[in-house]
Design a protein that fits this description.
single chain, mainly alpha, Glycosyltransferase, 0% strand, globular
């Protein structure tokens, strides 16, 4: 009997939505509407699936809720909702606003228990705490201009500061060995700063458009550029870690590698537009195609994993990943010191024949 679908889908699957959502934003920025739409609808379809399979059960299964909130990965659902809402805000502000409400509710309910069960040293997925908060800041700043809502600019500023505080709290306890031992989620150490830079850029643009925090516009611009530089500073050690210890097999956490790559491109566009540095825009354009290429590769790995899973007759679990290592059981072949055993279903006739032979050999 095959395992239920919820058992086959880990909570880290929310990073698929995060990755495809931001890559869709990048593709829209470089005027690739078809590819952007494909990524958007794929992200939306996965989001709906995960809401039914992973999100809804948390509302009525208290035992499952208590177990899930012990890990920051549960906040990936909030981050995914915020990123998807940011992409949808390009064409439909009302749907994006509804997703902002959903994301805020999830954030309010999940952050306190996640902090109560916080574990150190932290890993890459721990940075989802700050990413989800910055995601709310990003979507709030994006919608502030659309709805001419100055209070959303203030909310975005507070959320961004809180997100950066969470980042500092997490990175101070980050195990740097994750750079060579992580399975993809370690890239969020840089991606968390990238989404903070993007949120800061959108916040600055919204403040300028709505004439909010006028004396701080220059400080906001400089702060945004500093965040971009800090985010990019992680690229070299992360890339070196991949060269030192290549991790080529598929793991669902590899989607947490695609997400930062897409965010690097997105924040480069935002910071380039804000500061007028055209080189950053060029970096964003190149980064978009890199992120899209990696997305295709990881998506191929996902499809292959799904085919392996559903082609196994009578399989009860998916093929093991680095997140869930397997413990295969093997049976050693019989040796001269350990004679082969007979099956429990040995026929009565053969048993009787051996008994007769034994009696015949007795003196």
């Amino acid at each position: 009997m095959r395992a239920p679908v919820p058992v086959l889908i880990p909570a880290a699957s929310w990073t698929i939505v995060m990755s495809c959502g931001v890559v869709s934003i990048d593709l829209d920025t470089i005027h690739q509407p078809v590819l952007s739409a494909i990524m958007l609808w794929f992200a939306a379809a996965v989001w709906l699936l995960l809401v039914v399979v992973l999100g809804a059960p948390l509302a009525y299964r208290r035992g499952q809720f208590r177990r899930e909130v012990r890990s920051p990965v549960v906040l990936a659902g909030v981050a995914a909702t915020a990123v998807l809402g940011t992409r949808l805000a390009i064409g439909d502000h009302r749907v994006a606003a509804a997703l902002l409400v959903v994301a805020v509710i999830g954030w309010v309910l999940l952050v306190p228990p996640v902090l109560r069960h916080w574990r150190t040293p932290t890993t890459g997925i721990s940075f989802i705490l700050g990413v989800s908060t910055d995601g709310l800041a990003l979507l709030s700043a994006t919608l502030a201009v659309a709805f001419r809502a100055g209070w959303l600019v203030s909310a975005a500023a507070l959320l961004l500061l809180l997100g950066l505080t969470f980042y500092g709290f997490t990175v101070a306890r980050f195990d740097l060995r994750q750079l060579v031992s992580g399975h993809g989620d370690h890239w969020i150490v840089g991606g968390a700063l990238a989404i903070a830079a993007l949120a800061a850029g959108r916040l600055t643009e919204a403040a300028q458009a709505l004439d909010q925090f006028a004396p701080l516009h220059q400080a906001f611009t400089i702060g945004t550029l500093v965040l971009w530089c800090l985010a990019v500073a992680w690229v070299l050690p992360l890339a070196i870690g991949e060269v030192v210890r290549p991790r080529l097999g598929y793991d669902v956490r590899r989607w947490a590698t695609v997400f930062p790559l897409g965010m690097y491109a997105a924040c480069s566009f935002a910071v380039g537009r804000l500061t007028g540095i055209t080189a950053l825009t060029a970096i964003g354009r190149t980064g978009t195609w890199i992120a899209f290429g990696v997305t295709v590769i990881v998506l191929a790995g996902l499809i292959r994993r799904i085919r392996q899973t559903w082609s196994l007759p009578g399989a009860t679990t998916i093929p093991p990943t680095a997140e869930e290592p397997s413990c295969p059981t093997t049976t050693a072949p019989p040796t001269s010191d350990s004679p082969a055993t007979t099956p429990a279903s040995t026929s009565p006739t053969s048993t009787s024949s051996r008994s007769s032979a034994n009696r015949a050999q007795r003196p």
